[in-house]
Design goal:
By secondary structure, this protein is mainly alpha-helical. The chain contains 6 helices and 2 strands; from the N terminus they run H-E-H-H-E-H-H-H. The protein folds into 3 domains: 64 residues; 75 residues, 2-Layer Sandwich (Dna Ligase, domain 1), CATH 3.30.1490.480; 30 residues. Keywords: Membrane, Transmembrane, Transmembrane helix.
């Protein structure tokens, strides 16, 4: 019987060891699954927080943009050509140092301009002390008088021609102004 008792005892030890291993592997599996979930949820929370803060910062910048310079600033001549896209205008203003962020300016352009009041082609003297909203107000002004319309049309013709006939356009502009004055307009 000793042999039987030893065999039974060995079987019981193996069974107990197997149960302990099974329990340990089950616990390890549950903890690892729980750990993976914690890691995934933590990463999602971090990404959500990052996205929210970036969206808030961008929205805040779009509605509270300040001028590049305070005080008097620096006057800079900007030429907006006919057919320029809003992206090209934004890049031009960034390169001239008039606005700091192209994307923020594009959002402001969408907010402060429309098909009825688009950015007009022409030469503008803008200042680094102006906010982008003030610059857009200057660049979207429609000519009110016939003289302004004529001068704007001549300016557009001058810019579209690249053969050096700027003097002729200037002379025509002066002639149109003189005719307007002579007719009492």
């Amino acid at each position: 019987m000793d042999n039987r008792e030893q065999k039974n005892s060995q079987k019981q030890k193996k069974t107990q060891k197997h149960k302990n291993n099974y329990t340990l592997s089950t616990i390890t599996m549950v903890v690892s699954r729980f750990g993976v979930r914690i890691i995934v949820y933590s990463l999602l929370a971090i990404l959500f927080y990052y996205g929210i803060t970036k969206a808030y910062d961008f929205g805040y910048q779009a509605f509270t943009v300040k001028a590049v310079d305070s005080g008097e600033g620096t006057e800079i001549l900007v030429n907006i050509r006919k057919g320029m896209t809003k992206e090209e205008i934004a890049s031009l203003l960034v390169s001239k140092g008039l606005v700091e962020d192209k994307n923020t300016f594009l959002v402001q352009t969408a907010l402060y301009t429309s098909d009825r009041y688009p950015i007009q082609p022409g030469s503008y003297t803008l200042n680094t002390a102006q906010t982008p909203e003030e610059m857009l107000a200057v660049m979207t002004v429609q000519p009110e008088t016939e003289e302004e319309t004529t001068a704007l049309a001549l300016h557009r013709e001058t810019e579209s021609e690249s053969d050096g006939s700027e003097e002729t356009a200037a002379e025509e502009s002066a002639a149109a102004s003189t005719e307007g004055m002579a007719n009492g307009q």
